[in-house]
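We include this case.
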Amino acid sequence: MTCSQPFRADNPLFFQGWHPFSADALTAAFAGAGGLGVIRMPAFPDGEALVERLAELRRAGQVGMDMRGVLGDLSGRMEHAAKQLSAFVVHGSEIVPARLEALKAWGVPRVVEVRDALEAKLAAAQGASALLVAEGEALAERLRRMARETGLPCFAPAAGAAEGEALLAGGASGLQLRGPSLLREGAADFLEGFRRRMAQALERPALEALVGAPQAELPRLRIRNLDIPYPVIQGGMGIGVSWENLAGNVARCGCVGIVSAIGTGYRYPELAAHVAGRPSQPENLNSSEALTRILHSAREIAGPKGVIGVNILCAINDYDRVVRDSVAAGAQLIISGAGLPLGLPGLVGDADVALVPIVSSARALKLICKTWQRKYDRLPDAVVLEGPESGGHQGFSLEQCTDPAYSLEALVPEVVAERNAWGSFPVIAAGGVWDRADIDRLLALGADGVQMATRFIGTFECDAHPRFKEVILRADKSTIALHGSPVGMPARGVKTPLHARIAMGTAPRIRCISNCVAPCGHGKGAAEVGYCIADSLGDAWGGDVEQGLFFTGSSGWKLRELVHVRDLVGEITQDYGLSRLREA
């Protein structure tokens, strides 16, 4: 097989660009119909399992490996699988030199995802076999230029029929089909032949199960005057797991992007005074200037229709100032928990900002509504009900976290009933939400939307350090546990060397430089549990696996892949091409 053979054809080639559950059936159908099937690789692949998987799929036709999210070793059985069984590999243009050389040594055709002509020329010079033009503005223009200047086959992503036809007319060698809508009967004339071949390869009922529309469309989410295409809020994660890149891209994809307002002094150290490498005191830990810069960047990424909010812990010192800073910086929504934000409306005043408290019970919601109505003549614009499967701090005792009476499914109807007594603002269910099935189940119980955090750690756009992501991606069920926190609540995260050092009494000395949370009492709470939460979360932000604290939800062990936010939103909503955004 010559280097470019899989990508040279008289007719357009169709490249698999989405991966639903049971993706191998879709991959086989693409390959069996004469297209290019793609398997999305785990971050740390099992070489033996990969060999078996590829051997089975290659019976159907041309199947390649998407290497963009692979963090593990490329030698051994992984190398064997690629050399002997993979028709091609896909990787990004920002690949590190050593990894690029390893892929080149395999001698397997390489498809390189590129954003502009400069990256395209570099990929061509490095021996790429074909180009995958990244989504974005002026796609057709970029495609024509890349094809002209490199002479390589160029694939372009397409989610709609008109867009696909225009790209093929403009010189695309083929299309990366970004969602199932193009393969539905009658959707695109130029795909009818390919669709028929897929139906022959897979059998029509099985194909319809993969490319048919979901049984029910998800409702839109309306919070105050904000209209959100999908009923999904990305949960705030600090320190530095959800800042401008993650929140901005989530909002750009039609969900609510949430910036963590905590620890912003780590993001821009030049804007905050430091002592011994730590932001000194709350005004530097939660830097106003840094938060403003982060929020402005997030809103720029999100675009004019994207919704960007902040998450602010009630427990932090300087809470009032951080709320005012968030309003001044342009946050459209404030989510606040780790305590009851009873005075939040008074801090916001007349600003047009949606206020969303986090509660763990109907009783807590009742107290908030009663207080806000009496003191401020205002009710919440939405409420997040966070169950005991979430990452980070819990609003439950250790015993309650494992009691079925306090499960999210048990609490949703109670909180919905309490909401109904006050109005019709949305109830957002959070904690352990993983996929579309979870979303459907919670909506059926009366929730209006969901909040998801842990799944967004497994995205390229997540602001966390690569080693932070690696800790979560390597975690198994037994290593995710509840532990004590200086905040005075149980907290869930991955057991790491820090926890072993705490048990042995050799954890880092507590200095309380940042004075982060009021319940800690300026280091007293930290002394009781054996670590400083601000320092440990800051170390995790910096990728320090030995001393960092790595929060994740109870489902964190399921994370095995790195994907783009756009692909994740498509999967959890089952609107793979994000067609709702084009309709808006």
